[in-house]
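User: structure tokens for this one?
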Amino acid sequence: MYPFTLTPTQPEGSPYTIRRNVTRLNARHTTRQVYAVIGVNESKTYAVSGKDRKALLERMLVETGLSGKVEVVTCSEYIWQFGKRMGAKVILKPDGPLD
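Assistant:
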């Protein structure tokens, strides 16, 4: 699982970094489902809505040929809870490159 953030002021939230990391995750986990998870807190106001962030990431996946290989989801619960419910073995938070 790759919790997705869109924070242009932080390098780990740049579209290039997200694309690179999701591509690498998919390459490493070819036999497992990869989720790009967008956390949405109902009590916060976002510059870009969860629905729009999901659409941006899905478009990026189409452009990179990963559509259908990585599932983009939004969740309002803690991302670790979503991961546990989905049986995730690994949750990678985008605090930096996955090199």
